[in-house]
Design brief:
The structure holds 2 protein chains of 2 kinds. Chain A is α/β, with parallel strands linked by helices. Chain A is built from 11 helices and 34 strands. By secondary structure, chain B is an alpha/beta fold. Classes of the chains: A alpha/beta, B alpha/beta. Strand 2 of chain A pairs parallel with strand 9 of chain B.
């Protein structure tokens, strides 16, 4: 048992006050008796030197001392520490986040945490069941509950640290799921405390075994890339550097590509200051660039970030048309497009393109690819289609849809349109009195855009927004091709390689040249395990390569200084014994109330003389 | 008023029982051993010269031709004296022991007055004090009660001296009721024997208070003697109180034994005992009243 409020110990002096009161109460009083004749001999026989003041033993005094003692004990906020041997099930959570790589403890915080955990496992009763969880960006259960402590220790020592930030919420969820059927259990987190302060209000004991010194660190905490509009191949790199120390620092920063430094800068930071800078980079070819802080601090991981710049392999767009000058011109203005035109296409050919545009050409049966239909209707929707030859008066358009971004269609005129009844899955973007003029249809693995009017019989190609509309359409199909940040994720986050009919990944390697797990999804191929910072290489079946990068970019991980925890959490140094806490002041107060009832009875009970 | 009217009316049904017919020379309602000119026939005897002719039973002479004289028992009065201990120790308790003793004396006295016995009273401390000369008849009741009511416990005690003085002063037969707590370090025995030798039938009525018998336990006290005002430090532990109670009991038994040895009636009363219980149960059971 331990007391949280030892400063209240002085209250025990009140016990002396009660004794003084009883001493005063115990003074001899005068008693008149008819005669002391019969007392003479007795007083001689029984006389003994007695203090003038003495405390007679009585129940009320005992109860009052007991009540006061218990009240003071309650005020001291005692917490009961159950021995860890009595804990039946313990979830050991090893913090494998990036900050655990800090070398302020030799060899690093993670190894130190592992050894601390091993030492505690060795001290535990053999009856204690232990589960092991590695906490990182994606926490996972390493070992289910087991009494085989030797195996637990082996598993502990086999753990490796990741480059991801700690997801506390997730690790608590996993731990509580493990203890879901337990009345009482303990979650013991071995960490350095490099995360935001939080409060655990679950029903289990939550212990933090903290290791790590109060060390300073400087790291790159934000990174963003924008393509320069109007200048193909020019990018603006936004980088934020934060000084998590109590001293001024001046650090050289370089941006390099393939070992060649293409930009140098020097950043001066005051204590706890963040500073942002924007660097212009010319990158015509797709390549990996590195932003590096040249400092020798405790955490090297956040001193370097990777960014992929340059256009990826172009989109293959097939225009199936008998000829549409305006449309071709508009498509060719979009960067990174490889346009193919045909007047006839078969179903098998469609799979060779990322996008097929059917301009007044009836598409083949069973198109399940990304496609745009202009004044053409897939055979599945062809029934009941009529042509409305009256001018289409616009009745509604959704300006907030991605297709109409920066596009003003208030002056759109349409001479005629197809009138058809679309299924409910189609969403109308522009509507006229005759029905939808522009609709979209989304399925998990493909998308359609449907124009129900002939572009040549409208003034749309003459609208300023016409090329923007097509740029929006292409972006809607493949947003990643127009987002410079698309191939850049924070380590721990998942990355989806977009599904393209003619580019199927054959394998993905992480920065350590280890194969990464890939899960197929309707829209692409999901890489969930981005635990390491660096470049992930995607090998395609057509022997081409693509890549994406993962960067830490986490202020909470870069800030290596210990956090201040809320009172509900007990921080325990690595060397201390671990125990679960139970506040017992409430029971003490209940005990006092029952004592007061007893005292009241003793005081007011009928006196029999 | 020491006693209420209802209680007094009940007391009229009682009569003092005395062991010897110790009567005075005055005629009363109590049958004396003296044969003479009373109204109640007792026996016959042979006529002797000099006997009063008026008591010869002539009817018997006519049948037996012998002279027999009728003998009658003379009815004479009885003297009851109350000796009231006026010492400070009798002022203990609530009601005080003296108050209780006065009520007791008033009850016995009223019984005696109702039977045309003469009743007198005398207060004493270390010496003889106020005295109420004996009178008889119910008309004397109020004076007797007033005498008792005005007594105050304000004197020192010397039982032997006071009782001896009384014995020497009043050498006549009768009942003397001594009401005291008998807590006198110099004793009481000599005085009581003096009373006996003077011809008195003696009742020793010992009045105690319940607090005297059961003193409070577990307290540090200065015991202050009511008469000498001397104090004694004592811690009334359970052992001390037990020893005291044992001593008190021995003392009372000693008085009882002394009384039995010399034909003295002894009765111990506590002030919380109802007087009705004393009159109608205790004294009737022990032969003091009928």
């Amino acid at each position: 048992m331990q007391f949280l409020n030892l400063s209240a110990l002085y209250l025990f002096s009140l016990l002396g006050l009660i004794l003084v009161f009883y001493l005063l109460k115990g003074r001899r009083r005068d008693l008149h008796v008819p005669s002391t004749m019969l007392w003479q001999q007795i007083i001689q026989d029984y006389s003994s030197p007695r203090p003038r003041y003495r405390i007679r033993p009585e129940w009320l005094l005992f109860l009052q001392l007991l009540v006061l003692t218990v009240l003071i004990l309650a005020w001291l906020q005692p917490v009961f520490f159950a021995s860890m041997d009595t804990t039946r099930r313990v979830v050991l959570v090893m913090d494998g986040s990036a900050s655990m790589q800090a070398t302020d403890i030799v060899p690093n915080r993670f190894t130190h945490g592992i050894e601390t955990a091993v030492a505690q496992v060795e001290q535990m009763s053999s009856e204690t069941e232990i589960a092991l969880v590695l906490a990182a960006g994606q926490s996972r259960v390493i070992t289910e509950f087991s009494r085989d402590h030797t195996q637990i220790i082996e598993d502990l020592r086999s753990l490796s640290v990741t480059d991801t930030p700690l997801d506390l919420t997730r690790l608590i969820e996993i731990s509580e799921v493990l203890l879901a059927n337990e009345q009482r259990g303990e979650i013991r987190l071995f960490t350095d405390g490099a995360y935001l302060p939080f409060t655990y209000d679950g029903r289990f004991d939550f212990q933090i075994v903290q290791g790590g010194a109060d060390t300073g660190n400087v790291g790159i905490t934000e990174l963003d890339v924008r393509m320069s509009t109007g200048h193909i191949g020019e990018y603006h790199v936004f980088a934020e550097v934060t000084n998590f120390s109590y001293a001024d620092v001046t650090i050289p920063l370089t941006i390099s590509q393939g070992g060649r430094i293409i930009l140098r800068d020097t950043i001066q930071l005051e204590p706890e200051e963040s500073k942002s800078a924007i660097y212009p980079i010319q990158a015509m070819e797709r390549a990996i660039y590195q932003v590096t802080l040249h400092t020798d601090d405790a955490l090297a991981l956040d001193n370097q970030v990777y960014l992929p710049l340059g256009l990826a392999d172009g989109l293959r767009v097939l225009l199936v048309s008998s000829g549409n000058f305006f449309l071709e011109r508009a498509l060719l203005t979009i960067p990174n497009i490889r346009l193919f035109t045909k007047s006839i296409v078969t179903g098998a050919e469609i799979d060779l393109y990322d996008l097929v545009i059917f301009d007044r050409i009836t598409p083949p049966q069973g198109v399940r690819n990304n496609a745009v239909f202009i004044h053409a209707v897939p055979p599945e929707l062809d029934s009941g289609v009529t042509l409305a030859r009256q001018p289409a008066i616009l009745t509604d358009w959704r300006n907030n849809h991605a297709l109409l971004r920066f596009v003003d269609l208030s002056e759109l005129r349409v001479r005629s349109q197809l009138r058809l009844q679309l299924p409910q899955d189609f969403h109308s973007i522009i509507s006229s009195v005759h029905g939808p003029l522009l609709s979209v249809y989304e399925q998990p693995d493909f998308r359609w855009v449907l124009f129900t009017f002939n572009l040549d019989e409208s003034n749309l190609p003459l609208q300023v927004g016409f090329p923007i509309l097509w740029s929006n359409i292409i972006s809607w199909f493949y947003p990643q091709f127009f987002d410079a940040n698309y191939a850049m994720v924070r380590s721990g986050d998942s990355f989806e390689v977009p599904r393209r009919p003619w580019k199927v990944p054959s394998g993905i390697e992480n920065p350590r040249q280890e194969p990464a797990s890939v899960y197929s999804s309707p829209r692409g191929y999901l890489v969930q395990n981005t635990n390491y910072q660096g470049v992930y290489t995607v090998d395609m079946f057509d022997h081409t390569q693509d890549f994406f990068v993962a960067n830490l970019l986490s202020k909470q991980e870069s800030d290596l200084r210990p956090q201040v925890y809320s009172q509900q959490l007990q921080t325990v140094d690595s060397g201390e014994a671990i125990a679960s806490t139970r506040a017992i002041w409430f029971y003490l107060v209940l005990f006092v109330i029952s004592l007061l009832v007893v005292e009241g009875y003793l005081y007011h009970r009928p006196q029999v003389r | 008023m020491l006693l209420d009217h209802n209680f007094l009316r009940l007391l009229e049904n009682l009569e003092l029982l005395v062991k010897k017919t110790q009567s005075t020379h005055l005629v009363g309602q109590r049958i004396s051993k003296r044969l003479g000119g009373g109204m109640e026939f007792n026996d016959y005897r042979q006529y002797q010269r000099g006997d009063d002719y008026r008591y010869i039973d002539w009817n018997l002479y006519s049948r037996l031709e012998q002279l027999f004289l009728k003998q009658f028992v003379e009815e004479r009065d009885y003297l009851v004296y109350f000796l009231m201990d006026q010492s400070r120790s009798m002022g203990y308790g609530q009601p005080t022991k003296l108050n209780y003793a006065c009520q007791f004396a008033a009850a016995i006295g009223y019984i005696a007055l109702a039977r045309l016995d003469r009743v007198g009273a005398l207060a004493f401390g270390s010496d003889l004090g106020q005295e109420l000369r004996p009178r008889k008849g119910k008309g004397w009741t109020q004076s007797f009660f007033r005498f008792l009511e005005q007594l105050e416990p304000n004197k020192k005690t010397d039982l032997n001296h006071a009782l001896s003085l009384f014995g020497h002063k009043y050498k006549q037969s009768g009942l003397v009721v001594v009401l005291s707590d008998f807590l006198d370090p110099q004793g009481y025995q000599q005085g009581v024997l003096e009373l006996c030798s003077a011809g008195w039938q003696v009742w020793l009525i010992q009045v105690l208070n319940q607090d005297e018998i059961n003193p409070p336990q577990g307290e540090d006290l200065y015991l202050i003697d009511s008469e000498t005002l001397q104090s004694k430090e004592v811690y009334l532990s359970e052992g001390v109180v037990g020893k005291y109670q044992q001593t008190l009991q021995s003392y009372c038994e000693e008085i009882k034994e002394f009384s039995n040895r010399y034909g003295v009636y002894h009765l111990q009363l506590t002030t919380d005992t109802p007087l009705e219980q004393v009159m109608f149960q205790t004294l009737r059971k022990e032969g003091g009243l009928k």
